[in-house]
């Protein structure tokens, strides 16, 4: 058996026996150089980071294109740092699951340091501050989920914690307050340049990060906590940039099945952690083969040759087009539809869902039928080929243990981007009418039905974690599922008129009425969700 803490340079033949590729560098030496010359900090050391960013860094370290490792800062889940990073000397096994049933396995050692970064944790706080004061630092990446950037609640009001952070700088409580604190340390140390790269799944992610940081910084200037010069530093792209990005690699939570196969292959560290804060993470990460990372090439302090590890560096417009193509049209809206219907129809695997002709027809009609006509071609990736590849190779890959329940997490945060952008195109473009949309309202109706927490067999299930779950469920507590429910409009109105979830006025577009009708059909008793889907497909669906 081999394990992560084995000396991979001395025991390389044992790793080879288990078909595990090992780093071509000495992790200890890289770590020393990271202490002196940090280059790359990553916030949010979850599964995507481990299977994507860390693999890019490893590739560059192997090629000699990078000499220092990634510093991971976790603002949210301290258990992950202690039990998953420190316990394994920041190493992990990346497992790429190919459609022919085989795995590619690589021991990743590109993370040099990891910290719980919170103003109450003095060690991590002091260390990250020092890192940000170092002129060598070139960029930071983020994968902290959509909600990690938020300063506002569901009513678009600044949260009490955000308001508190805007009043004082010494102990920020929000992620954005803490990041602004670090940028202030960098500013004071010498106004050194840096790129702040969000790689979370939402449109204009760089802009959202920038706006959140500027909200805090502006309040600090107004409250005379910091000098105006700091704000000017943040808005000068030659000093601080917020590149936009598109990231794509389906990375499910670590699976027990993969753990079992790794054990059978002679790898020892397979225990999955389900943390108290609901992070599912393990000493290994499982991901797919296909991947795209497109980043706006705006790095004022320079950058490693990321392109040598497959990253596409381009201008903002192209990034935005690629991102809109993926996140708002060709992948994520389809994923969320499978997540919602899958939870209602009691599926626990994505590949099984796409083997169901009704669900496959639903996502084809959403993708090819409703989203593709209004999406701009990003040129670097062909949108039709992208959906074709998704539907024929990626989603049906039985080797990828992805679940509707993972994807359903935080749906309230995703709906504005995954469906709202397409709705916006239909409203804005005179060649289209928003009234043509059938499958987007159908999915939104199914999401409202999903929030009730009772599936299509009328058995209860636990909806995936979502910051608005409790509030949204409070509107639906009395819904009867036996066909006797009246006043659907009164029940759904508070949800459908929430502009944080639906940026467009759903009642003016006529979409809300359609959603209400679909919702009503879905609460007519056992099997009503599937029946509604089948009727909608029969009436409005095309064969793609
Ligand atoms: N997994 C994928 O397939 C995939 C692919 C492309 C993009 N993404 C993006 O990456 C993000 C993370 O995905 P993942 O697979 O790593 O998820 P994960 O559950 O494995 O990890 C989530 C990470 O975000 C942190 N986090 C959660 N809530 C937070 C909060 N409120 N504040 C700060 N940090 C918080 C967690 O501590 C953890 O480090 C997604 O939300 C998405 O935007 C994921
Ligand atoms: O990561 P989330 O939670 O924003 O969304 C869930 C999935 O749709 C997402 O992770 C996809 O797997 C990913 O976007 C593929 O690149």
UniProtKB/TrEMBL annotation:
Record key words, sorted: Oxidoreductase
Reactions listed under catalytic activity: D-mannitol 1-phosphate + NAD(+) = beta-D-fructose 6-phosphate + NADH + H(+)
Segments traversing the membrane: none
Keyword check for Repeat: no
EC number(s) stated in the UniProt entry for this protein: 1.1.1.57
Record's keyword annotation contains Oxidoreductase: yes
Domain of life: Bacteria
MF annotations from Gene Ontology: fructuronate reductase activity; mannitol-1-phosphate 5-dehydrogenase activity
Record-annotated Mannitol dehydrogenase C-terminal domain positions: 324-522
Domain annotation Mannitol dehydrogenase N-terminal: ranges: 41-308
PANTHER family linked to this entry: MANNITOL DEHYDROGENASE 2-RELATED (PTHR43362:SF1), MANNITOL DEHYDROGENASE DSF1-RELATED (PTHR43362)
UniProt name for this protein: Fructuronate reductase
């Amino acid at each position: 058996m081999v394990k992560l803490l084995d000396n991979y340079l001395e025991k390389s033949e044992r790793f080879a026996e288990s078909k595990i590729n090992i780093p071509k560098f000495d992790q200890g030496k890289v770590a020393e150089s990271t202490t002196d010359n940090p280059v790359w900090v990553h916030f949010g050391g979850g599964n995507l980071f481990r299977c994507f960013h860390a693999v890019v860094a490893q590739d560059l370290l192997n090629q000699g294109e990078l000499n220092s490792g990634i510093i991971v800062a976790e603002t949210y889940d301290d258990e992950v740092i202690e039990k998953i990073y420190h316990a394994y000397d920041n190493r992990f096994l990346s497992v790429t699951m190919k459609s022919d049933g085989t795995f590619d396995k690589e021991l990743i050692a590109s993370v040099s340091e990891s910290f719980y970064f919170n103003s109450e944790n003095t060690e991590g706080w002091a260390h990250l501050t020092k890192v940000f004061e170092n002129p060598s630092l070139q960029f930071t990446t983020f994968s902290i989920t959509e909600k990690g950037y938020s300063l506002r609640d569901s009513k678009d009001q600044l949260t009490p914690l955000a308001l508190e952070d805007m009043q004082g700088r010494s102990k920020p409580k929000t992620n954005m307050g803490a990041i602004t604190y670090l940028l202030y340390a960098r500013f004071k140390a010498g106004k050194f340049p840096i790129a702040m790269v969000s790689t979370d799944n939402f449109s204009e992610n760089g802009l959202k990060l920038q706006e959140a940081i500027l909200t805090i910084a502006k309040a600090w200037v107004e409250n005379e906590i910091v000098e105006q010069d700091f704000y000017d530093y943040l808005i000068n792209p030659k000093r601080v940039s917020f590149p936009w990005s598109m990231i794509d690699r389906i990375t499910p939570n670590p699976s027990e099945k993969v753990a079992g196969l790794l054990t059978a292959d002679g790898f020892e560290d397979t225990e999955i952690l389900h943390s108290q804060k609901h992070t599912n993470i393990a000493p290994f990460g499982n991901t797919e083969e296909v991947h795209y990372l497109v980043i706006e090439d705006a790095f004022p302090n320079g950058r490693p040759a990321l392109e040598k590890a497959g990253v596409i560096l381009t201008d903002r417009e192209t990034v935005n087009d690629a991102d809109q193509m993926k996140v708002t049209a060709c992948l994520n809206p389809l994923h969320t539809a499978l997540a919602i219907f899958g939870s209602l129809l009691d599926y626990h695997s994505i590949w099984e869902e796409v083997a169901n002709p009704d669900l496959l027809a639903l996502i084809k009609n959403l993708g090819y039928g409703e989203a593709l006509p209004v999406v701009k071609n990003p040129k670097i990736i062909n949108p039709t080929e992208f959906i074709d590849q998704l539907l024929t190779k990626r989603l049906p890959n039985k080797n990828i243990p992805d679940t509707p329940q993972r994807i359903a997490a935080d749906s309230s945060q995703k709906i504005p981007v995954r469906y709202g952008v397409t709705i916006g195109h239909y409203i804005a473009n005179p060649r289209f009418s928003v009234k043509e949309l059938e499958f987007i309202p159908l999915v939104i109706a199914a999401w409202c039905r999903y929030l009730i927490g009772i599936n299509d067999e009328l058995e209860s299930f636990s909806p995936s974690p979502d910051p608005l779950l409790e509030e949204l469920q409070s509107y639906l507590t009395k819904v009867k599922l036996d066909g006797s429910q009246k006043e659907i409009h009164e029940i759904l109105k508070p949800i459908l008129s929430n502009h944080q979830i639906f940026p467009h006025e759903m009642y003016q577009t006529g979409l809300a009425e359609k959603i209400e009708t679909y919702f009503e059909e879905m609460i007519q008793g056992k099997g009503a969700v599937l029946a509604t889907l089948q009727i909608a497909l029969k009436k409005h669906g095309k064969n793609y």
